[in-house]
Design brief:
Strand content: 25-35%
CATH class: Alpha Beta
Structural class: alpha/beta
CATH topology: YbaK protein
Order of helices and strands: HEHEEHEHEHEEHE
């Protein structure tokens, strides 16, 4: 598993780090947001029915994702949450630490990233650094540089 700090530093991507107790849900994370300025995220790792396509869906923390609408937008017949085993296999992450920064562990580049366009309007976005005991605040430009480095397909969609 790659050291996310080495990668961000190597790419000259600035970030602000906030350490906090382990959080497993958006609600738990909310208690530790006081000093953070960036938009907070909710991340869903999902798969299609056949299990041959995986998506990392990132939306504003308070937003609900309508899976049926997302299925139609992605032209998939059925989407469901991927298992913890698939999460570990594809992103090197465990439940509670799912983050855009986990893409660095997806060496096959087979996870498609779906970012809600409402979230992407923010100048700064918060992500776990692949563990749930810290949060990094990064600029949108820094994330774009990171995505380019990782090489995964990234789609920006207006999710309802």
């Amino acid at each position: 598993m790659s050291d996310i700090y080495e990668i961000l530093d190597g790419l000259e991507i600035d970030y602000v780090r906030y350490d906090h107790p382990a959080v497993f849900t958006v609600e738990e994370a909310e208690e530790h947001r006081v000093e953070m300025n960036g938009a907070h995220t909710k991340n869903l790792f999902i798969r299609n029915k056949k299990g041959d396509r995986h998506y990392l869906v990132t939306v504003p923390a308070e937003k609900r994702v309508d899976i049926k609408t997302l299925q139609a937008m992605l032209n998939e017949s059925k989407l469901s949450f991927a298992s913890p085993e698939r999460l570990l296999e594809h992103l090197g992450l465990t439940p509670g630490s799912v983050s855009l920064l986990g893409l660095v562990n997806n060496t096959r580049k087979d996870v498609v990233v779906i970012i809600d366009s409402e979230l992407w309007q923010n100048e700064r976005i918060c992500c776990h650094p692949n563990i749930n005991t810290a949060t990094l605040e990064l600029s949108r430009e820094g994330l774009e540089k990171y995505f380019k480095h990782c090489g995964n397909e990234v789609r920006y969609l207006d999710l309802q």
